[in-house]
Amino acid sequence: MNTFSSGQDLLFTLLLKVGVAASLAALLARSAVFRKVLFTEIRDSDLKIKLMLFLTPSLALGVMLRLFGSQYRFADLMLEGSFILGLLGGRVVGPLGGSIVSLPAFLNHEWLAMPVAAIAGLAGGLIRQVMPKKEDIWNFGPFTFLSIPRWLARLARHMSGSWEMLPLAGCIGLELGRLALGQATKPQWLFFINAQNWWSIALLLLATTMAVAVPIKIWNNTRIQMNLEQHQQLLLKARMDALSAQINPHFLFNTLNTVSSLIRYDPDLARGVVLKLSNILRRLLRKHETFVPLHEELDFLDDYLDIEVARFGRDNLRISKHIDNRTLEAFLPSMLLQPIVENAIKHGLAEKLEGGQISIRTSSIEARLVIEVEDNGAGIPEDRMSQVYVDGIGMKNVHERLRVLYGDDFRMDISSREGAGTLIRIEVPELVSEMTGANKGWL
Prior knowledge:
Elements: H1 7-28, H2 32-39, H3 45-68, H4 78-89, H5 93-101, H6 103-107, H7 113-130, H8 148-158, H9 165-184, H10 198-244, H11 249-265, H12 267-285, E1 291-293, H13 294-312, E2 317-323, E3 331-333, H14 337-349, E4 356-365, E5 368-375, H15 388-391, H16 393-406, E6 411-417, E7 421-429
Parallel strand pairs: 2-4
Antiparallel strand pairs: 1-3, 4-5, 5-7, 6-7
């Protein structure tokens, strides 16, 4: 137990405590390994161990400094650190890390230190578990408590709350619990700051909240910076992929073989295929644009499909299009549809001897552009559906480009039945033709 003779001493100690938490967070954020741990939201066992290895030694050192002298009471972040371990690492990392942090105090006969730290870590882990989106943890900041009136009003009107209030409630509940437990037991069993009036309790709760929220805010800024850097890298990669990976070299070889065979018995069709191929190559070699109108994308796709129809024969590959005229001027990522159609032909219809069909549909629904590509091919086995975005290079590139360009504001759904065909549905914001002048300024 620690009782302060004046409010000035209490305030000074609590300010130093928040300063230690901020300094420790900033120091850890300089490590590339620790930044990787923060950036990866779904952490495996290795990352969880690294998280503990980074946090527990420094937190335990703070407890040891407090044990060496009363002038270092501000260095003890056992409760706050255990709670952070639970918030970031989960139900196992929180209690285990808290127990390690509290070990010096426990060996110094503070018998309640380890149970309290373990409970704090477990509380953080449970809060992490109940949050539907783990990213909401990073919304918790030093001034979250200022949003309490707005949160109460929203709760009363719409019966909906904010998930960042859970960590705030956890900080307050844990500190009040430690204070009550410390006052109810022997003073030497648990270290706590003995706040005896309402203003000192308020300062204590504020300091505990800040000692958790400030490190989270510092680390969240680091995550945001890393996220921007990754998006820039992915954007460059996506632009290169749009030029080099969208048209498979085998397509060029197959087209040239088709032309060589058509020259003998259908020179006019061979000449048409050459013209279509030249249009495709001209589109690839000209300056790359991030967004193009849908009608331009469909023109490019028509050239590609005409060549494929010439290769497979009109009886083996039929194309049907149902295009909503309202969508023709809408903008979408350049060369988005060709790899999807190529994937349907290569994996869905290549082994189908006759009756192969691809349907392309577009519509506008509530300011959203909806594009559907459906084939009646082999379909995707159920055990491979979960790996479509991992193993399928074409689908992976399309999904990654959409994520880079739209963030979370898009949907790409794949539904398939083995032996019956596959439907790919893409939904993106409808960027209308008024943006033509700004198109080349994107990204």
